[in-house]
Specification:
By secondary structure, this protein is mainly alpha-helical. It has six helices and two strands.
Amino acid sequence: MPLSRDYVTKIRGYSKAQFHSLQDVDWRWNRRGAHFFNMGVMVVRPTLLDDFGVSNAREFLDMRQNQPFVDGVGNWKWSTDQTLLNYWLKRTRSHVEELDWRWNVLYGGVRRASIHRGFFIHFFLRDLLPDRGENIDALLADVDGVKKFWSRKAGSLWMA
């Protein structure tokens, strides 16, 4: 994934804060931090709850061991659902298949020169947007670049 230098630094800090204390799973640490899934786009199979040993989402959230995540204790106040799901996927050794990075392009996280390669772009942290999100023309120009790139690559695949 072509992350910006600043975002790699941010991910390292985020990884340490969210996952360092959860040492009973293998986070596959690397120079960018822990290996985890960003929850911008997830496709989940219906039997995932079976891996967690529950029959519905309420039971999962009510599990005693999940309370620090659900209650947002410490650093988990910033990312309860993402951290909880990543932890349980690793802890239960659930089968996962990773989507290509282009399915979840974070505007401001991926290098600007690579944004146009994304299938799905999400906007997060207003401070990372042009003029703190007030420059709609700049955002539209980037999104238009996506449309033009994929229109050339896939012909009629792009749907406006």
